[in-house]
Amino acid sequence: MADVARLYGGKDPRELSNYSISEAASYLSIPRSTVRAWAKGMGQTFKPVIELPDPKGSSLSFLNLVELHILDSIRHLGPGLPEIRKSVQYLRRELD
Q1: Is the overall model pTM greater than 0.90, yes or no?
Q2: Are 71 and 49 in contact (CB under 8 A)?
Q3: What is the pLDDT along the chain (96 residues), one digit of tens a residue?
């Protein structure tokens, strides 16, 4: 992977901003409003669920698409978004 990263300025190509919210929604068959809310949040009350490569932008990486796909799949299995958020926060703490 190090050789590939050199081609992209030392960055992992899976983490580069490549997809718009509309593209991600189309590829994953998730409503655009849901992808936008999960990626950018909604106002002060609904915080983003995933972290974008550039928080000031709105482009998503390949890994973001994977995260969105998994979130959507889990959501359809039954756990609500509050439980999913708790799990994501736990995993982020464990990985840091």
Answers
A1: no
A2: yes
A3: 566 667 777 788 888 899 999 999 999 999 999 999 999 999 888 889 899 998 888 899 999 999 999 999 988 887 788 888 888 888 888 887
